[in-house]
Design a protein that fits this description.
5-stranded parallel sheet; 7-stranded parallel sheet; 16% strand; 47% helix; single chain; alpha/beta
Length: 350
């Protein structure tokens, strides 16, 4: 990474800490809605969150994904403190499981401060937005951090009773390995193309001949292989075992299984570290990256790797890019797939 980019990144990190500091106040914290799947973007956010908490000297007393969440466990592990909700881009009704989960947490803990770490928000259904506003707005100490001002505009209309503050995306807190990514042949092009409900750029549909003379590797944060994949699956199985324990406890209204949950917390950390390290390894073989995922863009910026960015279906990427991540010298923005191809052709023929 260029010195100017590194200095800019450090300022973003310091600004984020200054925003979060008064909300956390040196308290112990719980971190909920932990990612437990393949999405490297969520894992990169997670890595940044953990890095920020360590830098701020805060102790994480309880961690849980959606299915491993148990309010009684949390209260035993952290009788007082601040509940943090994992950041990202799932605040709204595009990913209803996460929204239902955070609204349940708000109901379960009216007596704790709750901080939603930086999110983008998007509601298609105004009734669901009104429900979220009613539930979250009724909490006496809930703070919603948003990572772009388009989300803030939406929140002021759809969530008028919820306290909103701007904060930079948490993935920027992640520090990649000290060894620099080697400068590879630009004709080795890595394409990270989303294939889910947010897909809109057309990047997922390109073929191997999209860039004549270049070798294209296209993926959407797919599974690994070899021993690393075996370890990943083993960690995932441990979290699923804890999910079964939680379901049993709820049915029978019994306590216990703290050791099993501690193992699940360690497994969640391992899964996310493996997701990020696998992505860093994937990027290390590329000379150019073309992406339509926000955190595929952020990771390329953190690694100092030249890349081209396309948007998703509701400007989640463009909003953040325009406000701050677009200032990294390695980033270029394309408004459509044709412009992305033109920029990529210019890059690979340099």
């Amino acid at each position: 990474m260029l010195k100017t980019d590194a200095a800019y990144l450090e300022q973003l990190r310091l600004d984020s800490i200054s925003i979060m500091g008064p909300l956390l106040g040196g308290a112990e914290v719980a971190l909920l809605d932990a990612p437990n799947q393949r999405n490297v973007g969520d894992s990169l956010i997670w890595a940044g969150e953990i890095a920020y908490l360590e830098r701020m000297g805060l102790r994480v007393r309880y961690v849980a994904d959606i299915q491993g969440y148990d309010p009684s466990r949390l209260r035993r592990a952290m009788p007082s403190g601040v509940i943090l909700l994992h950041g990202g881009g799932n605040f709204g009704d595009l990913w209803p499981g996460h929204q239902t989960h955070r609204e349940q947490i708000v109901r379960d803990f009216p007596d704790y401060r709750i901080v939603q770490l930086p999110q983008s928000i998007y509601f298609r259904d105004e009734k669901k937005a009104a429900t979220a506003n009613q539930i979250i707005g009724a909490h006496p100490d809930f703070s919603l951090l948003l990572r772009d001002h388009e989300s803030i505009k939406r929140a002021r209309v759809q969530l008028p009773d919820v306290a909103v503050t701007f904060c930079y995306d948490m993935a920027l807190g992640y520090a990649p390995p000290a060894a620099p990514v080697p400068v590879n042949d630009r004709r080795n092009v890595l394409v990270i193309a989303r294939a889910d409900v947010e897909r809109s750029s057309g990047l997922h549909d390109i073929g191997a001949d999209w860039l004549p003379g270049a070798t294209i590797t296209k993926t959407d944060w797919g599974p690994g292989d070899g021993p690393a994949e075996v370890l990943w699956q083993a960690a995932r199985m441990l979290t699923k075992a804890d999910h079964r324990v939680v379901r049993t406890q709820r049915r029978r209204r019994v306590l216990g299984a703290g050791v099993a949950h501690f193992g699940a917390e360690q497994a969640i950390g391992l899964l996310n570290r493996m997701n990020v390290s696998g992505a860093v390894e994937l990027y290390s073989r590329a000379g150019l990256v073309v992406v339509d995922r926000l955190h595929a863009h952020v990771l390329a910026a953190l690694l100092g790797l030249d890349h081209i960015v396309l948007d998703n279906n509701y400007r989640k990427i463009g909003s953040v890019y325009d406000e701050y991540t677009g200032r990294f010298s390695t980033a270029s923005y394309a408004t459509d797939i044709d412009e992305a191809r033109e920029l990529a052709m210019q890059a690979v023929t340099v």
